[in-house]
Amino acid sequence: MTIQIPDxxxxxxxxxxxxxxxxxxxxxxxxxxxxFDKASSPAVVLPALRKLPHPSxxxxxxxxxxxxxxxxxxxxxxxxxx
Length: 82
Description:
This protein is an all-alpha fold. The protein contains 4 helices and no strands. It has one domain.
């Protein structure tokens, strides 16, 4: 595959490649691969979530009670009905 990039980006890659003693292609590939290895990818996040401890029944009850207490009453009357 051939990717066309602006000249200034190519010069930047050449400088990085020279500093790391790698080819421009290797620096570009390493950079692209790192995009897929980020902690935000679904393949990384899902296993991390599965490792978290499950909340206790009491904690769930407390959360549901807090949610219920914060609910506002429903007012089905419009502004002109009052």
